[in-house]
Inverse folding.
């Protein structure tokens, strides 16, 4: 019995399903990680994998990047967290305000989920309205007000009353949004500008601009959930990439350099309503955690000077071209994030994604793992690339793709 299997058997008695997040569970059992460096991770049984999960997009520099690790080590001798301000939260805020078009002020949180919850609270307070519009397939954290899809609540335990204040439309369907906005007083429209939690689904050409126009007309705020896309599609996030500026935006993942973090940012007149400057409550023991601030600051400094996004994007483009050539299945990509869908049809919405062959995807993912390549074990996540991936990783992933596709019954 492998050590990973032994640990999983122990974990099942202690943790629900043996994991701390559902997507980490897959058959026959998940591998347990011992460490990582650059583009590779290593499990407790000594196996090495080329990593295209990268902590679900948090590690654009790859694992244990020296500039990040060394800055963290310097701080550890002086303390870990203090519950008081540090200079690093000011410096990281400066970076976000410098690069993100909508950001005039920032508030740090402990997670992306907390950031989206706080941004919506702020939008409701600012507009004096309660209804929020979201999109089927977009994920804004596991809090009750956003655990909805087109069929209603996605989990038991979500109060039915929340369905009255959370409207769900189809991504890339601007007409459905127009109808919803005409019939409801919306506090905000919240959207992943490029959907990353239903696989990778890019916005159609005028979709985001259409949302901006609807919000301007109706008085609702436009919130971009950039927890995935922030500092991945460009230094200015998706809003610079697509040239559509929201009123508020949320961030996570990359801005923490691998540590738990979140943030919401926006125009000064709105952000000044957050306590203690205003009355909209937000607080947290670990907000602005010193180590997370240092890791995020170091990561963004590397992105600024070393062509990180460009390199990661080039790697992603080559892999996607190879996937398309070898499989002829649908492959969606936005910058350095992408996914293969086992369907010949276009995937433009959550409903399109659900129609793809998920069982074939899981066979493919398992085969890739057996061939030394780790991709997220869900059809509804993305592959992510980093600046640490190189030509040797490309050769290995191309070889693994060919072997794995043949093992799941590719039909040309």
């Amino acid at each position: 019995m492998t050590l990973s299997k032994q640990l999983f058997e122990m974990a099942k008695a202690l943790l629900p399903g043996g994991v701390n997040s559902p997507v980490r569970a897959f058959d026959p059992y998940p591998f347990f990680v011992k460490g990582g460096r650059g583009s590779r991770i290593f499990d407790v049984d000594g196996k090495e994998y080329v990593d295209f999960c990268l902590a679900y997009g948090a590690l654009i520099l790859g694992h244990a990047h020296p500039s990040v690790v060394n800055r963290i080590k310097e701080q550890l001798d002086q303390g870990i967290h203090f519950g008081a301000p540090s200079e690093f939260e000011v410096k990281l805020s400066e970076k976000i305000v410098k690069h993100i078009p909508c950001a005039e002020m920032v508030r740090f949180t402990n997670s992306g989920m907390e950031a989206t919850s706080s941004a919506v609270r702020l939008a409701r307070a600012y507009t004096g309205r309660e209804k929020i519009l979201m999109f089927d397939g977009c994920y804004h954290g596991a809090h009750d007000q956003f655990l909805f899809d087109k069929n209603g609540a996605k989990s038991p335990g979500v109060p039915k009353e929340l369905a009255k204040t959370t409207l769900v439309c189809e991504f890339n369907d601007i007409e459905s949004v127009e109808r919803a906005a005409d019939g409801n007083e919306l506090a905000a429209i919240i959207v992943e500008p490029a959907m990353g939690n239903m696989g990778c689904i890019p916005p159609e050409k005028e979709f985001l601009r259409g949302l901006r126009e609807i919000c301007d007309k109706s008085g609702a705020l436009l919130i971009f959930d950039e927890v995935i896309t922030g500092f991945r599609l460009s230094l200015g996030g998706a809003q610079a990439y697509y040239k559509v500026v929201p009123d508020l935006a949320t961030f996570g993942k990359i801005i923490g350099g691998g540590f738990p973090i979140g943030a919401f940012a926006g125009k000064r007149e709105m952000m000044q309503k957050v306590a203690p400057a205003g009355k909209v409550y937000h607080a947290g023991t670990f907000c602005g955690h010193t180590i997370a601030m240092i890791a995020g600051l170091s990561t963004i400094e590397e992105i600024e000077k070393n062509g990180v996004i460009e390199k990661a994007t080039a790697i992603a483009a080559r892999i996607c071209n190879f996937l398309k050539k070898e499989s002829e299945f649908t492959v969606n990509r936005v910058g350095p994030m992408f996914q293969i869908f086992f369907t010949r049809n276009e995937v433009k919405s959550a409903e399109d994604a659900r129609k793809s062959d998920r069982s074939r995807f899981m066979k493919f993912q398992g085969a890739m793992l057996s061939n030394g390549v780790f991709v997220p074990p869900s059809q509804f996540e993305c592959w992510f690339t980093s600046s640490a991936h190189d030509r040797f990783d490309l050769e290995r992933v191309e070889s693994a793709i060919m072997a794995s596709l043949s093992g799941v019954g590719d039909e040309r």
In short: The radius of gyration is 21 Å. Residues 307-382+400-412 form a domain with the Aspartate Aminotransferase, domain 1 fold (CATH 3.90.1150.10).
